[in-house]
Amino acid sequence: MTSPPVVDVAHVTKTFGENLALDDVTLTIARGELVGLLGPNGAGKSTLISLLTGLRKPSSGSVRVLGGDPRDPATRVAVGSTPQQTGLPETLKVDEVVEFVSRHYPDPADADELLERFGLTDLVHRQCGALSGGQQRRFAVALAMLGRPALVLLDEPTTGLDIDARHTLWNAIEAYQAEGGTVLVTSHYLEEIQRLAQRVVVIDHGRVLVDDTTRAVIDRVDVDRVALVSADARLADLPEVMSLEREGEDVTLLTPDADALVRRLVTEDIEFRRLRVAGASLEDAFAQLTALTAGDHR
Ligand SMILES: Nc1ncnc2c1ncn2[C@@H]1O[C@H](COP(=O)(O)OP(=O)(O)OP(=O)(O)O)[C@@H](O)[C@H]1O
């Protein structure tokens, strides 16, 4: 018998009064997937996550998590989550919170190992209120994994983290997936989603715009990103240049055809150094996708 999908959302609509936060959303996630959920502010990401954690129920449609109702405690115990705001008890120490939260789960993870993985070992005796914002964030994600959940839902887990802390968190998330875990993660740092997620779901105005592998989403945009050093002001006006940003002599531009652009630089005798060509990024794809739909709604 095949097991049910970890997440099974079918034709879900969620309204808040007049406000349509989710509009006929259908989404399934299989065990072991790491899916990035993207969308501009107000797109409906947090609302979708609140349906999966069982905090809200859909206005219509069905939401199943691990084959059960996400509002059922038996389902919730197998789901770890971190909301955007983490309310840790200020006066409790890290190890006390770990002990307290562990007791809620039948088969908790090894706390020392988990804290080590999140770079929190040196902070176990510190009160939560004395942790920095970034440390609290990392701790909240560690707590989401403490019950060995089958699914973790991470809403903006790395907001406010410095680059080292972000890498620590990425490694911990990847380790969790390597052990068979399933992850749905939202982030405004698209390079983070590009690095972590094998699949991307983009929502906007409550609707799923795209649901595909990260590679396929990036490949939809037919642009190259070119960086070079040049003082020449004519660059911005070349027909092969779609958009250009300049900081002093450091220029980054988008072009549909990097080869044609390079030929143009040479024939126009434009002086340049340190030319680097890279493919499009997830950020480029996202900007193009959401720009395409902006006109439909305004
Ligand atoms: N409790 C609520 N009452 C009324 N409207 C709400 C409520 N929660 C969300 N909304 C509305 O639903 C829509 C989707 O909001 P949601 O918070 O899910 O978006 P989001 O994609 O998570 O945005 P962000 O990236 O800013 O966190 C928005 O229009 C928002 O104003």
Overview in brief:
By secondary structure, the chain is α/β, with parallel strands linked by helices.
Distance, first to last CA: 47 Å
Total tally of structural domains: 2
What is the CATH architecture term of the largest domain? 3-Layer(aba) Sandwich
Report strand %.
25-35%
Domain ABC transporter: 7-230
Main location: membrane
Membrane topology: Peripheral membrane protein
Pfam family, one: ABC_tran
Describe the structure.
It is built from ten helices and 13 strands. It has two domains: 7-219, Rossmann fold (3-Layer(aba) Sandwich), CATH 3.40.50.300; 224-279, Alpha-Beta Plaits (2-Layer Sandwich), CATH 3.30.70. It has a six-stranded mixed beta sheet, sandwiched between helices. It has a four-stranded antiparallel beta sheet with strand order 11-12-10-13, with no helix packed on it. Strands 2-1-4 form a three-stranded antiparallel beta sheet. The protein has 298 residues and is α/β, with parallel strands linked by helices. The model has no long low-confidence stretch (mean pLDDT 91). The protein binds adenosine-5'-triphosphate (ATP). Adenosine-5'-triphosphate binds next to β2 and α1.
Key terms:
single chain, 298 residues, 2 domains, six-stranded mixed sheet, antibiotic resistance, ABC_transporter-like_ATP-bd
Please specify the SSE layout and strand pairing:
Elements: E1 7-16, E2 19-29, E3 34-38, H1 45-52, E4 60-65, H2 73-76, E5 79-82, H3 94-102, H4 111-117, H5 133-145, E6 151-155, H6 163-178, E7 182-186, H7 190-196, E8 199-204, E9 207-213, H8 214-219, E10 224-229, E11 243-247, E12 250-255, H9 258-267, E13 273-279, H10 282-297
Bound molecules: adenosine-5'-triphosphate.
